Fold these 2 entries.
Entry 1:
Amino acid sequence: MEQNDDRKLLGMNPARLAEVAAEVGLKPFAAKQMAAWLYQKKVTDIDSMTDLSKYARAKLVQRGYHIGCVAPKAEARSADGTVKYLFEGVGGRDIEAVYIPDKERATLCVSSQAGCRMNCRFCMTGQGGWQGNLDAGAIINQILSIPESDTLTNIVFMGMGEPADNIGQVLAALEILTAKWGMAWSPRRITVSSIGKLDGLKRLLDSTQVHIAISIHSPYALEREQLMPVEKAFPMREVLRLLRQYDFAHQRRLSMEYTMFDRLNDDDRHADALARVLKGMDVRVNLIRFHKTPGFDGAPSTREAMERFRDRLNAAGITATIRASRGEDIMAACGMLAGKKKD
Ligand code: SF4
Protein backbone atom coordinates (compact mmCIF):
# COMPACT_ATOMS: atom_id res chain seq x y z
CA MET A 1 0.00 0.00 0.00
CA GLU A 2 1.29 3.46 -0.91
CA GLN A 3 0.19 6.85 0.33
CA ASN A 4 -1.55 8.64 -2.48
CA ASP A 5 -2.31 12.27 -1.86
CA ASP A 6 -1.49 14.13 -5.05
CA ARG A 7 -2.71 17.45 -3.62
CA LYS A 8 -0.22 17.48 -0.75
CA LEU A 9 2.53 20.02 -1.48
CA LEU A 10 4.97 18.71 1.13
CA GLY A 11 7.18 16.19 -0.63
CA MET A 12 7.01 17.86 -4.05
CA ASN A 13 10.18 18.95 -5.84
CA PRO A 14 10.42 22.12 -7.99
CA ALA A 15 9.49 20.24 -11.19
CA ARG A 16 6.25 19.01 -9.64
CA LEU A 17 5.59 22.37 -7.98
CA ALA A 18 5.99 24.06 -11.39
CA GLU A 19 3.15 21.89 -12.70
CA VAL A 20 1.00 22.92 -9.77
CA ALA A 21 1.94 26.57 -10.31
CA ALA A 22 0.97 26.34 -13.99
CA GLU A 23 -2.42 24.91 -13.02
CA VAL A 24 -3.30 28.11 -11.17
CA GLY A 25 -1.77 30.48 -13.70
CA LEU A 26 1.52 31.15 -11.92
CA LYS A 27 4.85 31.54 -13.74
CA PRO A 28 7.42 28.68 -13.44
CA PHE A 29 9.58 30.67 -10.98
CA ALA A 30 6.75 30.38 -8.44
CA ALA A 31 7.88 26.76 -7.97
CA LYS A 32 11.09 27.92 -6.25
CA GLN A 33 9.09 30.37 -4.12
CA MET A 34 6.76 27.58 -3.07
CA ALA A 35 9.69 25.27 -2.26
CA ALA A 36 11.18 27.98 -0.06
CA TRP A 37 7.88 28.41 1.79
CA LEU A 38 7.56 24.67 2.30
CA TYR A 39 11.10 23.66 3.23
CA GLN A 40 12.82 26.79 4.54
CA LYS A 41 10.08 28.96 6.03
CA LYS A 42 8.11 25.85 7.04
CA VAL A 43 4.65 27.29 6.56
CA THR A 44 1.70 25.16 7.55
CA ASP A 45 -0.99 26.79 5.37
CA ILE A 46 -1.11 28.00 1.80
CA ASP A 47 -2.31 31.47 2.74
CA SER A 48 1.04 32.13 4.41
CA MET A 49 2.80 31.97 1.01
CA THR A 50 2.48 35.73 0.74
CA ASP A 51 4.59 36.28 -2.38
CA LEU A 52 2.09 34.28 -4.42
CA SER A 53 -0.88 36.33 -5.56
CA LYS A 54 -3.99 36.19 -3.41
CA TYR A 55 -5.85 34.85 -6.43
CA ALA A 56 -3.33 32.00 -6.93
CA ARG A 57 -3.44 31.03 -3.25
CA ALA A 58 -7.23 30.95 -3.28
CA LYS A 59 -7.15 28.86 -6.46
CA LEU A 60 -4.73 26.38 -4.90
CA VAL A 61 -7.00 25.93 -1.88
CA GLN A 62 -10.04 25.68 -4.14
CA ARG A 63 -8.38 22.86 -6.08
CA GLY A 64 -7.76 20.91 -2.91
CA TYR A 65 -4.05 21.62 -2.48
CA HIS A 66 -2.78 21.72 1.07
CA ILE A 67 0.62 21.79 2.77
CA GLY A 68 0.47 18.41 4.50
CA CYS A 69 2.52 19.44 7.52
CA VAL A 70 0.83 17.58 10.34
CA ALA A 71 1.85 17.74 14.00
CA PRO A 72 2.52 14.51 15.91
CA LYS A 73 -0.54 12.89 17.51
CA ALA A 74 1.20 11.97 20.72
CA GLU A 75 4.56 11.97 22.42
CA ALA A 76 6.37 10.10 25.18
CA ARG A 77 9.29 11.59 27.09
CA SER A 78 12.15 9.51 28.47
CA ALA A 79 14.02 10.27 31.68
CA ASP A 80 17.16 10.68 29.51
CA GLY A 81 15.64 13.48 27.39
CA THR A 82 14.70 11.30 24.41
CA VAL A 83 11.25 12.03 22.99
CA LYS A 84 9.24 9.56 20.93
CA TYR A 85 6.66 11.11 18.58
CA LEU A 86 3.69 9.27 17.13
CA PHE A 87 2.43 10.31 13.68
CA GLU A 88 -0.46 9.32 11.49
CA GLY A 89 0.95 6.54 9.30
CA VAL A 90 -0.59 4.54 6.52
CA GLY A 91 -2.63 1.35 6.22
CA GLY A 92 -4.01 1.70 9.73
CA ARG A 93 -0.62 1.79 11.42
CA ASP A 94 0.85 4.90 12.97
CA ILE A 95 4.56 5.54 12.76
CA GLU A 96 7.14 6.84 15.19
CA ALA A 97 10.11 9.21 15.13
CA VAL A 98 12.59 9.59 17.97
CA TYR A 99 14.28 12.83 19.01
CA ILE A 100 17.61 12.19 20.76
CA PRO A 101 19.43 15.16 22.33
CA ASP A 102 23.05 14.50 23.24
CA LYS A 103 25.33 17.37 24.35
CA GLU A 104 25.80 19.52 21.24
CA ARG A 105 24.00 17.04 18.95
CA ALA A 106 20.28 16.69 18.42
CA THR A 107 19.39 13.71 16.27
CA LEU A 108 16.05 12.73 14.83
CA CYS A 109 15.52 9.08 13.96
CA VAL A 110 12.85 8.95 11.23
CA SER A 111 10.67 6.18 9.84
CA SER A 112 10.38 5.38 6.14
CA GLN A 113 7.60 2.76 6.24
CA ALA A 114 4.59 1.91 8.38
CA GLY A 115 5.89 -1.40 9.67
CA CYS A 116 8.46 -3.42 7.79
CA ARG A 117 8.53 -6.57 5.67
CA MET A 118 12.12 -7.56 6.46
CA ASN A 119 10.91 -9.57 9.43
CA CYS A 120 14.02 -9.38 11.59
CA ARG A 121 13.18 -11.72 14.46
CA PHE A 122 14.28 -9.42 17.28
CA CYS A 123 12.57 -6.24 16.06
CA MET A 124 9.12 -5.10 17.15
CA THR A 125 8.57 -3.17 13.93
CA GLY A 126 9.16 -6.32 11.90
CA GLN A 127 7.00 -8.43 14.21
CA GLY A 128 4.03 -6.19 13.41
CA GLY A 129 4.34 -6.75 9.65
CA TRP A 130 4.21 -4.12 6.90
CA GLN A 131 1.26 -1.79 6.36
CA GLY A 132 2.60 0.60 3.73
CA ASN A 133 5.25 2.96 2.44
CA LEU A 134 5.53 6.56 3.56
CA ASP A 135 5.72 9.13 0.81
CA ALA A 136 8.48 11.75 0.79
CA GLY A 137 6.14 14.32 2.36
CA ALA A 138 5.37 12.05 5.31
CA ILE A 139 9.10 11.44 5.85
CA ILE A 140 9.89 15.18 5.69
CA ASN A 141 6.89 15.95 7.90
CA GLN A 142 8.53 14.08 10.80
CA ILE A 143 11.46 16.51 10.57
CA LEU A 144 9.47 19.71 10.05
CA SER A 145 6.62 19.25 12.48
CA ILE A 146 8.31 18.42 15.79
CA PRO A 147 8.87 21.30 18.22
CA GLU A 148 12.66 20.71 18.12
CA SER A 149 12.82 20.94 14.31
CA ASP A 150 15.04 24.03 14.22
CA THR A 151 17.55 22.57 16.67
CA LEU A 152 18.25 19.32 14.79
CA THR A 153 21.86 18.62 13.83
CA ASN A 154 21.56 15.06 12.49
CA ILE A 155 18.97 12.87 10.79
CA VAL A 156 19.16 9.08 10.84
CA PHE A 157 16.86 6.83 8.83
CA MET A 158 16.80 4.12 11.48
CA GLY A 159 13.19 4.22 12.59
CA MET A 160 10.42 1.96 11.33
CA GLY A 161 10.98 0.32 7.96
CA GLU A 162 13.79 -0.62 5.62
CA PRO A 163 14.69 2.54 3.63
CA ALA A 164 16.00 0.52 0.67
CA ASP A 165 12.56 -1.11 0.41
CA ASN A 166 10.97 2.30 -0.22
CA ILE A 167 13.89 3.76 -2.06
CA GLY A 168 12.02 6.05 -4.48
CA GLN A 169 10.37 8.02 -1.69
CA VAL A 170 13.47 7.93 0.51
CA LEU A 171 15.55 9.38 -2.35
CA ALA A 172 12.90 12.06 -2.93
CA ALA A 173 13.01 12.94 0.79
CA LEU A 174 16.83 13.03 0.74
CA GLU A 175 16.74 15.37 -2.26
CA ILE A 176 14.45 17.76 -0.37
CA LEU A 177 16.69 17.53 2.68
CA THR A 178 19.93 18.25 0.84
CA ALA A 179 19.00 20.44 -2.17
CA LYS A 180 19.68 24.18 -2.10
CA TRP A 181 16.02 24.81 -3.01
CA GLY A 182 15.05 22.50 -0.15
CA MET A 183 16.43 22.31 3.37
CA ALA A 184 20.11 22.53 2.29
CA TRP A 185 21.38 19.97 4.80
CA SER A 186 24.85 18.57 4.32
CA PRO A 187 24.67 14.83 3.49
CA ARG A 188 27.35 14.38 6.13
CA ARG A 189 24.72 14.99 8.77
CA ILE A 190 22.44 12.27 7.42
CA THR A 191 22.77 8.51 7.88
CA VAL A 192 20.59 5.93 6.16
CA SER A 193 20.46 2.45 7.62
CA SER A 194 19.78 -0.68 5.58
CA ILE A 195 19.74 -4.42 5.99
CA GLY A 196 21.34 -4.53 2.55
CA LYS A 197 18.42 -4.80 0.13
CA LEU A 198 20.71 -4.71 -2.85
CA ASP A 199 18.78 -2.85 -5.55
CA GLY A 200 17.68 -0.06 -3.23
CA LEU A 201 21.05 0.14 -1.52
CA LYS A 202 22.81 0.52 -4.87
CA ARG A 203 20.52 3.39 -5.86
CA LEU A 204 21.18 5.02 -2.50
CA LEU A 205 24.94 4.68 -2.96
CA ASP A 206 24.87 5.94 -6.55
CA SER A 207 22.60 8.91 -6.11
CA THR A 208 23.48 10.35 -2.69
CA GLN A 209 26.50 11.08 -0.50
CA VAL A 210 24.80 10.28 2.82
CA HIS A 211 26.47 8.04 5.38
CA ILE A 212 25.48 4.39 5.24
CA ALA A 213 24.82 2.02 8.16
CA ILE A 214 24.40 -1.68 7.41
CA SER A 215 22.74 -4.08 9.85
CA ILE A 216 24.98 -7.12 9.98
CA HIS A 217 24.36 -8.70 13.43
CA SER A 218 26.38 -11.85 12.66
CA PRO A 219 29.44 -12.65 10.53
CA TYR A 220 28.03 -16.13 9.78
CA ALA A 221 25.43 -16.47 7.01
CA LEU A 222 23.42 -19.24 8.67
CA GLU A 223 23.29 -17.50 12.01
CA ARG A 224 22.43 -14.20 10.35
CA GLU A 225 19.62 -15.92 8.50
CA GLN A 226 18.16 -17.08 11.82
CA LEU A 227 18.07 -13.48 13.02
CA MET A 228 17.33 -11.86 9.67
CA PRO A 229 15.54 -14.04 7.12
CA VAL A 230 16.48 -11.52 4.39
CA GLU A 231 19.99 -12.98 4.45
CA LYS A 232 18.61 -15.59 2.07
CA ALA A 233 17.57 -13.02 -0.55
CA PHE A 234 20.35 -10.53 0.12
CA PRO A 235 23.40 -12.40 1.44
CA MET A 236 25.83 -10.29 3.39
CA ARG A 237 28.69 -11.43 1.15
CA GLU A 238 26.90 -9.79 -1.81
CA VAL A 239 26.21 -6.67 0.22
CA LEU A 240 29.89 -6.40 1.18
CA ARG A 241 30.92 -7.01 -2.43
CA LEU A 242 28.74 -4.07 -3.47
CA LEU A 243 30.00 -1.83 -0.66
CA ARG A 244 33.63 -2.55 -1.52
CA GLN A 245 33.08 -0.77 -4.85
CA TYR A 246 32.47 2.59 -3.13
CA ASP A 247 34.74 5.06 -1.37
CA PHE A 248 34.09 5.38 2.35
CA ALA A 249 37.43 6.91 3.24
CA HIS A 250 36.63 10.50 2.33
CA GLN A 251 33.19 12.09 1.87
CA ARG A 252 30.93 9.51 3.42
CA ARG A 253 31.15 7.00 6.24
CA LEU A 254 30.21 3.34 6.38
CA SER A 255 29.25 1.69 9.64
CA MET A 256 28.08 -1.79 10.55
CA GLU A 257 25.32 -2.13 13.12
CA TYR A 258 25.83 -5.17 15.33
CA THR A 259 23.12 -5.92 17.89
CA MET A 260 24.56 -8.05 20.67
CA PHE A 261 22.72 -11.05 22.06
CA ASP A 262 23.89 -12.95 25.11
CA ARG A 263 25.85 -16.08 24.09
CA LEU A 264 24.44 -15.92 20.59
CA ASN A 265 26.81 -13.61 18.74
CA ASP A 266 28.95 -11.99 21.43
CA ASP A 267 31.99 -14.25 21.94
CA ASP A 268 35.59 -14.11 20.69
CA ARG A 269 34.84 -16.42 17.77
CA HIS A 270 32.24 -13.98 16.44
CA ALA A 271 34.49 -10.97 17.01
CA ASP A 272 37.33 -12.62 15.08
CA ALA A 273 35.05 -13.71 12.26
CA LEU A 274 33.54 -10.23 12.02
CA ALA A 275 37.02 -8.70 11.82
CA ARG A 276 37.89 -11.16 9.02
CA VAL A 277 34.73 -10.40 7.06
CA LEU A 278 35.33 -6.63 7.26
CA LYS A 279 39.07 -6.79 6.64
CA GLY A 280 40.41 -4.03 4.39
CA MET A 281 37.20 -1.99 4.44
CA ASP A 282 36.92 1.60 5.68
CA VAL A 283 34.26 0.80 8.22
CA ARG A 284 33.43 1.25 11.85
CA VAL A 285 31.28 -1.09 13.93
CA ASN A 286 28.51 0.13 16.24
CA LEU A 287 27.75 -2.37 18.97
CA ILE A 288 24.15 -2.12 20.11
CA ARG A 289 22.74 -3.69 23.22
CA PHE A 290 19.70 -5.82 22.42
CA HIS A 291 16.51 -4.45 23.94
CA LYS A 292 14.20 -7.20 25.03
CA THR A 293 11.16 -7.51 22.77
CA PRO A 294 8.13 -9.69 23.55
CA GLY A 295 8.33 -11.92 20.49
CA PHE A 296 11.98 -12.99 20.72
CA ASP A 297 13.73 -15.27 23.20
CA GLY A 298 17.22 -13.76 23.13
CA ALA A 299 18.70 -11.77 25.99
CA PRO A 300 20.97 -8.72 25.96
CA SER A 301 24.73 -9.26 26.17
CA THR A 302 26.40 -8.24 29.39
CA ARG A 303 28.38 -5.00 29.52
CA GLU A 304 31.55 -7.08 30.02
CA ALA A 305 30.89 -9.17 26.92
CA MET A 306 30.26 -6.03 24.87
CA GLU A 307 33.45 -4.38 26.06
CA ARG A 308 35.48 -7.51 25.40
CA PHE A 309 33.99 -7.77 21.89
CA ARG A 310 34.74 -4.09 21.22
CA ASP A 311 38.32 -4.41 22.44
CA ARG A 312 38.90 -7.51 20.34
CA LEU A 313 37.67 -5.73 17.19
CA ASN A 314 39.77 -2.68 17.98
CA ALA A 315 42.83 -4.88 18.46
CA ALA A 316 42.16 -6.41 15.05
CA GLY A 317 42.22 -2.92 13.50
CA ILE A 318 38.44 -2.41 13.24
CA THR A 319 37.14 0.68 15.00
CA ALA A 320 34.26 -0.39 17.22
CA THR A 321 32.21 1.54 19.73
CA ILE A 322 29.34 0.68 22.05
CA ARG A 323 26.34 2.80 21.20
CA ALA A 324 24.63 4.41 24.17
CA SER A 325 21.14 3.06 24.65
CA ARG A 326 18.55 5.85 24.63
CA GLY A 327 14.85 6.02 25.40
CA GLU A 328 14.43 2.42 26.57
CA ASP A 329 11.88 3.47 29.24
CA ILE A 330 9.55 4.80 26.51
CA MET A 331 10.16 1.91 24.10
CA ALA A 332 12.13 4.19 21.78
CA ALA A 333 15.45 2.32 21.66
CA CYS A 334 16.71 0.25 18.70
CA GLY A 335 14.28 -2.48 17.69
CA MET A 336 11.51 -1.25 19.98
CA LEU A 337 9.49 0.95 17.62
CA ALA A 338 6.13 -0.64 17.08
CA GLY A 339 3.89 2.20 15.96
CA LYS A 340 0.27 1.69 16.77
CA LYS A 341 -2.26 -0.30 14.85
CA LYS A 342 -5.86 0.74 14.76
CA ASP A 343 -8.30 -2.01 15.56
S1 SF4 B 1 15.37 -4.21 12.15
FE1 SF4 B 1 14.92 -2.71 10.54
S2 SF4 B 1 14.85 -3.96 8.68
FE2 SF4 B 1 14.65 -5.39 10.39
S3 SF4 B 1 12.43 -5.65 10.69
FE3 SF4 B 1 13.14 -4.00 12.07
S4 SF4 B 1 12.77 -2.11 10.92
FE4 SF4 B 1 12.75 -3.80 9.46
Note: The pocket of iron/sulfur cluster is lined by residues 116, 118-120, 123, 125-126, 160-162, 195 (CB under 6 Å).
Entry 2:
Amino acid sequence: MGKLTNIKPRLSSTPPRLKSPPKIVEEFYSSPEWRALVKRIKAKRGNFCQRCGSSDRVIADHIIERKDGGADLDENNIELLCHTHHQKKTAQARARRARGQA
Ligand SMILES: [Zn+2]
Protein backbone atom coordinates (compact mmCIF):
# COMPACT_ATOMS: atom_id res chain seq x y z
CA MET A 1 0.00 0.00 0.00
CA GLY A 2 1.03 3.55 -0.48
CA LYS A 3 3.23 3.39 -3.50
CA LEU A 4 2.01 5.81 -6.09
CA THR A 5 2.77 4.92 -9.64
CA ASN A 6 5.23 7.20 -11.22
CA ILE A 7 3.35 9.82 -13.16
CA LYS A 8 5.32 11.25 -15.99
CA PRO A 9 5.39 15.00 -16.21
CA ARG A 10 3.56 16.24 -19.27
CA LEU A 11 6.09 18.89 -20.13
CA SER A 12 8.56 16.77 -22.06
CA SER A 13 8.53 18.90 -25.18
CA THR A 14 6.67 22.14 -25.55
CA PRO A 15 5.67 22.61 -29.15
CA PRO A 16 6.71 25.94 -30.61
CA ARG A 17 3.95 28.45 -30.91
CA LEU A 18 3.43 29.55 -34.43
CA LYS A 19 0.37 31.64 -33.94
CA SER A 20 0.05 35.01 -35.55
CA PRO A 21 0.82 37.89 -33.21
CA PRO A 22 -2.14 39.19 -31.22
CA LYS A 23 -3.95 42.12 -32.70
CA ILE A 24 -4.15 45.30 -30.70
CA VAL A 25 -7.82 45.60 -31.58
CA GLU A 26 -8.61 42.30 -29.94
CA GLU A 27 -6.77 43.31 -26.83
CA PHE A 28 -9.06 46.29 -26.56
CA TYR A 29 -12.18 44.19 -26.99
CA SER A 30 -11.13 41.92 -24.17
CA SER A 31 -10.29 44.75 -21.80
CA PRO A 32 -12.33 45.01 -18.60
CA GLU A 33 -13.19 48.64 -19.41
CA TRP A 34 -14.79 47.69 -22.71
CA ARG A 35 -16.62 44.71 -21.24
CA ALA A 36 -18.00 46.77 -18.40
CA LEU A 37 -19.19 49.42 -20.82
CA VAL A 38 -20.92 46.87 -23.06
CA LYS A 39 -22.58 45.34 -20.05
CA ARG A 40 -23.84 48.73 -18.94
CA ILE A 41 -25.15 49.60 -22.39
CA LYS A 42 -26.94 46.29 -22.77
CA ALA A 43 -28.47 46.66 -19.35
CA LYS A 44 -29.69 50.10 -20.26
CA ARG A 45 -30.82 49.61 -23.85
CA GLY A 46 -31.68 45.95 -23.78
CA ASN A 47 -29.87 43.14 -25.52
CA PHE A 48 -31.30 43.90 -28.96
CA CYS A 49 -30.12 45.16 -32.29
CA GLN A 50 -30.86 48.87 -32.44
CA ARG A 51 -31.65 48.65 -36.14
CA CYS A 52 -34.03 45.71 -36.33
CA GLY A 53 -34.67 44.58 -32.77
CA SER A 54 -33.17 41.13 -33.29
CA SER A 55 -31.50 39.46 -30.36
CA ASP A 56 -29.29 37.30 -32.55
CA ARG A 57 -25.71 37.52 -31.31
CA VAL A 58 -25.96 41.16 -30.32
CA ILE A 59 -22.66 42.91 -30.15
CA ALA A 60 -21.64 46.43 -29.31
CA ASP A 61 -20.12 48.24 -32.24
CA HIS A 62 -18.41 51.57 -32.60
CA ILE A 63 -20.48 53.89 -34.76
CA ILE A 64 -17.36 55.75 -35.74
CA GLU A 65 -14.72 53.06 -35.80
CA ARG A 66 -11.71 53.42 -33.58
CA LYS A 67 -9.33 53.46 -36.52
CA ASP A 68 -11.35 56.32 -37.93
CA GLY A 69 -10.90 58.29 -34.76
CA GLY A 70 -14.09 57.28 -32.94
CA ALA A 71 -14.12 57.39 -29.17
CA ASP A 72 -13.23 54.05 -27.58
CA LEU A 73 -15.32 54.12 -24.48
CA ASP A 74 -18.01 56.69 -25.17
CA GLU A 75 -21.39 55.03 -25.12
CA ASN A 76 -22.70 57.63 -27.54
CA ASN A 77 -20.34 56.13 -30.09
CA ILE A 78 -21.61 52.63 -29.50
CA GLU A 79 -24.49 50.91 -31.18
CA LEU A 80 -25.85 47.47 -30.44
CA LEU A 81 -26.09 45.39 -33.59
CA CYS A 82 -27.26 41.90 -34.37
CA HIS A 83 -24.97 39.58 -36.27
CA THR A 84 -26.48 40.47 -39.64
CA HIS A 85 -26.35 44.19 -39.18
CA HIS A 86 -22.87 44.06 -37.78
CA GLN A 87 -21.70 42.17 -40.85
CA LYS A 88 -23.41 44.64 -43.15
CA LYS A 89 -21.92 47.56 -41.34
CA THR A 90 -18.45 46.06 -41.35
CA ALA A 91 -18.67 45.33 -45.07
CA GLN A 92 -19.85 48.86 -45.80
CA ALA A 93 -17.12 50.41 -43.72
CA ARG A 94 -14.52 48.28 -45.43
CA ALA A 95 -15.82 49.18 -48.88
CA ARG A 96 -15.86 52.85 -47.99
CA ARG A 97 -12.31 52.67 -46.71
CA ALA A 98 -11.21 50.80 -49.83
CA ARG A 99 -12.56 53.64 -51.94
CA GLY A 100 -10.63 56.06 -49.82
CA GLN A 101 -13.63 57.91 -48.49
CA ALA A 102 -13.32 57.00 -44.85
ZN1 LIG B 1 -30.22 43.94 -36.84
Note: The two ends are 74 Å apart (CA to CA).
